[in-house]
C-alpha cells in the first residue's frame, strides 16, 4: 500500500466520491422513473399494431387496420388510467384494499368482464350518434372513426394528467360526433340521442349521490348513532350485504352477461331478489360470529364492511369491463369491418383479438398510471371509510339498474364520483345539523368563526369544481379535437 492510499484524507475523499456516485445513481433512477410508464405503453401500442398485422393479413388496407389497432390500444391504456379508478378508489380510500391489491383485482376482473361478457355487437358508430349512410364512402367513414378514436384517447389522457376522472364513453361519443359533423355536417347528428346523453351529465351524478347519501343516512341512523352499535350492526349489516348482493346479481344479469344470455329487466330483478334473500340469510350467522368481542365503537364497525366492499369493487370492475370496453374498441371494430368488407352501415361484430387489445390495454393503463386517479377518487375529494365507500359502490350498481329501466344513457364515472360527492355533502349537512342541535342544548357553547367553518368543509371545493368543469366540456372538447383531426387526415389523404 502506498503512503497516499493509506492517508485517511484520501479515504475521506474516496467516501465522498462514492457518496456522490450513489446520489447520482439515485437521481438518475428518479429521472428515468417517469419514463418507464410511457416506455412500456409505447411497447404495448407497437405490439398491438403487430398483432393486428398478423390477424388481418397482408392486404391493401392492412396499414389502416394497424394504425387503428395502435390508436385502440392507446385508448384502452387511457381507460385503465382514468375510468377504472372510479371502481377501486373508494375501497382504497377506505383502506379496505391496498393499492397493489386493488390493481390486481381490477386487472383480473376488468379483463374477465371484457373477454367473457363483453358486448359482442355495438352500433356502427357509438350508440347511433351519426347516421352511417351520411358518410358517403368507406374511406371517409374510416377516417372519421380514426379521428374519433384519437381525439377521445387524447382527451382522456389530458384529463388523467390534470387529475380529473372523466367519462371515456362520453369522450368516444364526443369524438364520433365531431368527426361526423366534420365529415357530413350537423344534419348527420342524431340530436335526440345527444340530448339524452347531455341529460345524463346531470342525472347520473345526482342520482348516484342521492342514493349513496340515502344509504349513509340509513347506516348512521340505524347503526352508528345507536347506543349498542354492535347489536344494531348484527341486525342491519346482513340486510345491507343482502341488498348489495341482490343489486349486483341483477346488475350483472342485466348488463354483464348479455353475451352469454339475454335477460330482460323483470327476470333480472327476480334473480336479484332471490340471491339477495339467500345472502341475507347466510350473512346473519357470519356477521354474528365476526362481531364477537368487538368494542362498542365506530372503529369496530369498519371490520364488518371490509369484505363486502372488496367484493363490490371486484364486481363493479367486472361489469365495467363487460360494458365500457366495447364502447372504447367499437370504433376500432368498425374500422376493421369497413376495411375488410367495405360495409360500414350495418352493426359491427367485435373480433376477439380487438377485445384482447382492449382488455390488456386497460390492465396496463391501470397498472402504470391508475394510482393517481385512484387516490383522487378514494381520498382527495372527501375522506372515506368502509361504510361510506360501501354506500358509493352500492349506489353505482343501483343507479345503473334504474337508468337501464328508464332507458337513460349514463356514465359509470359520473355515477361513482357523484356517489363520493353525495356521501361528502351528506356528511357536511349531518355535521351542521348536529352542531345546531348541540347549540340548542348548550347555548353557551362557543361556535366556530365563518372562516373556520369554511375550512372544515368535508368536500374539497377545488376538486369538485375541477371535476364538474371536466365533465361539462368532455363532449364538446372531444368533438372539436376530433373535427380538427378529421380535417387534417382528410387533407393529407385526400
TrEMBL record:
<keyword id="KW-0813">Transport</keyword>
<feature type="transmembrane region" description="Helical">
    <location>
        <begin position="63"/>
        <end position="81"/>
    </location>
</feature>
<feature type="transmembrane region" description="Helical">
    <location>
        <begin position="35"/>
        <end position="56"/>
    </location>
</feature>
<feature type="transmembrane region" description="Helical">
    <location>
        <begin position="236"/>
        <end position="254"/>
    </location>
</feature>
<feature type="transmembrane region" description="Helical">
    <location>
        <begin position="140"/>
        <end position="164"/>
    </location>
</feature>
<feature type="transmembrane region" description="Helical">
    <location>
        <begin position="464"/>
        <end position="489"/>
    </location>
</feature>
<comment type="similarity">
    <text>Belongs to the inorganic phosphate transporter (PiT) (TC 2.A.20) family.</text>
</comment>
<keyword id="KW-0472">Membrane</keyword>
<feature type="transmembrane region" description="Helical">
    <location>
        <begin position="195"/>
        <end position="216"/>
    </location>
</feature>
<dbReference type="GO" id="GO:0035435">
    <property type="term" value="P:phosphate ion transmembrane transport"/>
</dbReference>
<protein>
    <recommendedName>
        <fullName>Phosphate transporter</fullName>
    </recommendedName>
</protein>
<dbReference type="InterPro" id="IPR001204">
    <property type="entry name" value="Phos_transporter"/>
</dbReference>
<dbReference type="GO" id="GO:0016020">
    <property type="term" value="C:membrane"/>
</dbReference>
<feature type="transmembrane region" description="Helical">
    <location>
        <begin position="412"/>
        <end position="429"/>
    </location>
</feature>
<keyword id="KW-0592">Phosphate transport</keyword>
<feature type="transmembrane region" description="Helical">
    <location>
        <begin position="389"/>
        <end position="406"/>
    </location>
</feature>
<keyword id="KW-1133">Transmembrane helix</keyword>
<feature type="transmembrane region" description="Helical">
    <location>
        <begin position="260"/>
        <end position="282"/>
    </location>
</feature>
<feature type="transmembrane region" description="Helical">
    <location>
        <begin position="303"/>
        <end position="322"/>
    </location>
</feature>
<feature type="transmembrane region" description="Helical">
    <location>
        <begin position="350"/>
        <end position="369"/>
    </location>
</feature>
<keyword id="KW-0812">Transmembrane</keyword>
<feature type="transmembrane region" description="Helical">
    <location>
        <begin position="171"/>
        <end position="189"/>
    </location>
</feature>
<dbReference type="GO" id="GO:0005315">
    <property type="term" value="F:phosphate transmembrane transporter activity"/>
</dbReference>
<dbReference type="Pfam" id="PF01384">
    <property type="entry name" value="PHO4"/>
</dbReference>
Amino acid at each position: 500500500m502506498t503512503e497516499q492510499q493509506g492517508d485517511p484524507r484520501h479515504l475521506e475523499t474516496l467516501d465522498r466520491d462514492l457518496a456522490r456516485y450513489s446520489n447520482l445513481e439515485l437521481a438518475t433512477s428518479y429521472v428515468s422513473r417517469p419514463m418507464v410508464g410511457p416506455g412500456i405503453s409505447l411497447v404495448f401500442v407497437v405490439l398491438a399494431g403487430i398483432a393486428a398485422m398478423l390477424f388481418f393479413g397482408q392486404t391493401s388496407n392492412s396499414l389502416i387496420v394497424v394504425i387503428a389497432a395502435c390508436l385502440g390500444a392507446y385508448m384502452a391504456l387511457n381507460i385503465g388510467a382514468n375510468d377504472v379508478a372510479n371502481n377501486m378508489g373508494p375501497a382504497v380510500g377506505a383502506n379496505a384494499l391496498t393499492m397493489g391489491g386493488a390493481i390486481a383485482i381490477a386487472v383480473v376482473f376488468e379483463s374477465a368482464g371484457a373477454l367473457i361478457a363483453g358486448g359482442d355487437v355495438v352500433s356502427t358508430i357509438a350508440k347511433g350518434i351519426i347516421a352511417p349512410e351520411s358518410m358517403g364512402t368507406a374511406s371517409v367513414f374510416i377516417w372519421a372513426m380514426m379521428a374519433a378514436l384519437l381525439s377521445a384517447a387524447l382527451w382522456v389522457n389530458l384529463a388523467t394528467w390534470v387529475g380529473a376522472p372523466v367519462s371515456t364513453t362520453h369522450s368516444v361519443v364526443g369524438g364520433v360526433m365531431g368527426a361526423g359533423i366534420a365529415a357530413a355536417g350537423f344534419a348527420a347528428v342524431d340530436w335526440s340521442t345527444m340530448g339524452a346523453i347531455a341529460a345524463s351529465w346531470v342525472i347520473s351524478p345526482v342520482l348516484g349521490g342521492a342514493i349513496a347519501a340515502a344509504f349513509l343516512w340509513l347506516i348512521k341512523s340505524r347503526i352508528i348513532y345507536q347506543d349498542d352499535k354492535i347489536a344494531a350492526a348484527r341486525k342491519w349489516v346482513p340486510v345491507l350485504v343482502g341488498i348489495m348482493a341482490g343489486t349486483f346479481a341483477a346488475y350483472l344479469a342485466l348488463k354483464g352477461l348479455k353475451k352469454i344470455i339475454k335477460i330482460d329487466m323483470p327476470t333480472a330483478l327476480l334473480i336479484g331478489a332471490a340471491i339477495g334473500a339467500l345472502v341475507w340469510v347466510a350473512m346473519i350467522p357470519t356477521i354474528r360470529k365476526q362481531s364477537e368481542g368487538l368494542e362498542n365503537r365506530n372503529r369496530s364497525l369498519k371490520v364488518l364492511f371490509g369484505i363486502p366492499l372488496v367484493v363490490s369493487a371486484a364486481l363493479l370492475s367486472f361489469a365495467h369491463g363487460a360494458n365500457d370496453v366495447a364502447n372504447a374498441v367499437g370504433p376500432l371494430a368498425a374500422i376493421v369491418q369497413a376495411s375488410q368488407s367495405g360495409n360500414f352501415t350495418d352493426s359491427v361484430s367485435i373480433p376477439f383479438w380487438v377485445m384482447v387489445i382492449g382488455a390488456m390495454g386497460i390492465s396496463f393503463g391501470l397498472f402504470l398510471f391508475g394510482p393517481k386517479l385512484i387516490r383522487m377518487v378514494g381520498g382527495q375529494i372527501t375522506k372515506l371509510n368502509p361504510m361510506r365507500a360501501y354506500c358509493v359502490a352500492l349506489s353505482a350498481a343501483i343507479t345503473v339498474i334504474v337508468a337501464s329501466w328508464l332507458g337513460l344513457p349514463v356514465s359509470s364515472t359520473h355515477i361513482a364520483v357523484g356517489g363520493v360527492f353525495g356521501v361528502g355533502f351528506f356528511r357536511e349537512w349531518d355535521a351542521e345539523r348536529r352542531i345546531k342541535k348541540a347549540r340548542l342544548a348548550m347555548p353557551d357553547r362557543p361556535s366556530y368563526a365563518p372562516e373556520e367553518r369554511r375550512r372544515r368543509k368535508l368536500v374539497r371545493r377545488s376538486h369538485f369544481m375541477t371535476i364538474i368543469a371536466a365533465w361539462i366540456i368532455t363532449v364538446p372538447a372531444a368533438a372539436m379535437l376530433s373535427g380538427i383531426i378529421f380535417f387534417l387526415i382528410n387533407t393529407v389523404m385526400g
